[in-house]
Design brief:
InterPro entries: AAA+_ATPase (IPR003593), ATPase_AAA_core (IPR003959), ClpA/B (IPR001270), ClpA/ClpB_AAA_lid (IPR041546), ClpA_ClpB (IPR050130), P-loop_NTPase (IPR027417). This protein is α/β, with parallel strands linked by helices. It folds into three domains: 37 residues, no CATH class; 116 residues, Rossmann fold; 211 residues, P-loop containing nucleotide triphosphate hydrolases (Rossmann fold, 3-Layer(aba) Sandwich). Helix content is 60%, strand content 7%. A hairpin with a 5-residue loop joins strand 6 and strand 7. It starts with 14 loop residues before the first helix and ends in a 6-residue tail after the last strand.
């Protein structure tokens, strides 16, 4: 039927499924002309979402701002890399509008918090009424006072909520009515029923739109409920999906970078050159002066133990990501054998433990905004360094299960004690500090391969501390 044109068919499939099911039958494959459909770009995705926006708005009774569409496409392109672009956009909007629809049908968080507190006080009140000691009676009076104050706060909030809920419900009802009238208008135009079409255009539809505009214009300033989905709601969904604090990162980016070196100096004392080198490298990356696919920063910290290498890593994590406990720490002395690479990225299919993820890749997938700290990196096997080359060069790493993990928003720090004895000899005054550092670099070049050192942003020296 396909060969004689009796059956005309348009199919859609993935490249993998085409290879698996269709290519095995050469005769069947010849009946179709292959048309490769590429993944849409960010502007094309925005255009597609703008075409679907009215359907989502009419079905869920919400209003989606155009700027929210732009933010959704940009954020998903940057932060969610393991799903096809258009697919994740559609999933996003289904989740966003459904979540917003549920919020419109439930109490605001402020009222819900007060209600929970009221229930807690009432339970405590009933328990205290059964006690007769002096302390319980004094506590009973205090609970009664707190309960009365809470009820006084709840009463106006509930009145305002009921008023706004009625307004939102009326807006949603009018929008649904308008959509039904528009469908009726389109049906009348297809039948060339001009009388009904004119009645709908200049009568019912115009009346509904006038009423809708009047109700939408009567909103109070501090509203508790809104049917509008904006960019901030998109950022909240990104945070739920990825754990990345998109809103906080976007608002405070300049504040975090301005004066970064001064704030690092306040916590790390006695290592001025090291702190300045790290701060300048981070600023260059944030100013887009480096390669876009590289991590935010990649450093090799050299120095003896106890001079502030780990402390600077924690301080950098606190300044960039608001959490000093954020570093993903890996002790490289545990990866001295060649097979230990599987512990970092996960075992290949067919090997024991292939269903488990790697220590490094799984941690980076869960926390894509973090500091990755490799302790005692000089003890790692050569195969481990070969794996790190891809991270330092392209900002990504493929784990044992074939998933690509994004490292572009991480700071890579490798700690080493190579040449520590030379730095200590410089402290005693036996050699000039520049001569000492040249000796340390000779040891570093003998131990690490040139392709690894060339991919680092900075090699940072930590001087021995003077008591």
């Amino acid at each position: 039927m396909l060969a004689w044109g009796q059956l005309r068919c348009i199919g859609a499939t993935t490249l993998e499924e085409h290879r698996k099911y269709i290519e095995k039958d050469a005769a069947f494959e010849r009946r179709f002309q292959q048309v490769y459909v590429a993944e849409p770009s960010v502007p094309n995705t925005i255009s597609i979402l703008q075409g679907l926006k009215e359907k989502y708005e009419g079905h869920h009774g919400v209003r989606i701002q155009d700027c929210a569409l732009v933010i959704a496409a940009q954020l998903s392109s940057r932060y969610i890399t393991d799903v096809i672009f258009l697919t994740k956009q559609l999933i996003w909007f289904m989740e966003i509008v459904q979540m917003w629809e549920l919020q419109l049908d439930s109490q605001p968080d402020k009222i819900d918090k007060h209600e929970r507190k009221r229930m807690q006080l009432e339970v405590e009140l009933h328990a205290l009424e059964k006690e007769n000691d002096k302390a319980s009676k004094a506590q009973l009076v205090e609970v009664w006072r707190e309960l009365d104050d809470l009820r006084d706060k709840l009463q106006p909030l509930k009145m305002k909520y009921r008023k706004e809920k009625g307004r939102v419900d009326e807006i949603r009802r009018l929008k649904q009515k308008r959509d039904k009238l528009i469908l009726a208008l389109q049906e009348a135009e297809r039948r060339y029923d001009l009388a009904i079409a004119a009645n709908l255009i200049y009568g019912e539809i115009q009346e509904v739109e006038s009423t809708l505009a009047q109700i939408e214009g009567t909103a109070d300033e501090n509203i508790m409920l809104t049917e509008t989905v904006g960019p901030e709601h998109i950022a909240d969904v990104v945070n739920c999906w990825t754990g990345i604090p998109v809103t906080r990162i976007g608002q405070n980016e300049k504040e975090r970078l301005i004066g970064l070196a001064e704030r690092l100096h306040q916590r790390v004392v006695g290592q001025n050159q090291a702190v300045d080198a790290v701060a300048e490298a981070v600023l260059r990356s944030r100013a887009a002066l480096g390669r876009p696919q590289q991590p935010t920063g990649s450093f090799l910290f050299l120095g003896p133990a106890g001079v502030g290498k780990t402390e600077l890593s924690k301080s950098l994590a606190e300044q960039l990501f608001d959490d000093e406990n954020l570093p993903i720490r890996t002790d490289m002395s545990e990866h001295m054998e060649q097979h230990s690479v599987a512990r970092l990225i996960g075992a290949q299919l067919g090997y024991i433990g292939h269903k488990k993820g790697g220590q490094l890749t799984e941690a980076a997938r869960r926390r894509p905004y973090s500091v990755v700290l490799f302790d005692e990196v000089e003890k790692a096997h050569l195969s481990v360094f070969n794996t790190l080359l891809q991270v330092l060069d392209d900002g990504r790493l493929t784990d044992g299960q074939g998933r690509t993990v994004d490292f572009r928003n991480t700071v890579i720090i490798m700690k080493s004690n190579l040449g520590a004895e030379h730095l200590l000899s410089g402290l005693s005054g036996k050699c000039a500090m520049q001569v000492v550092r040249d000796r340390v670099m000779q040891e570093v070049r003998r131990h690490f391969r040139p392709e690894l050192l060339s991919r680092l942003d900075e090699i940072v020296f930590f001087d021995p501390l003077i008591t």
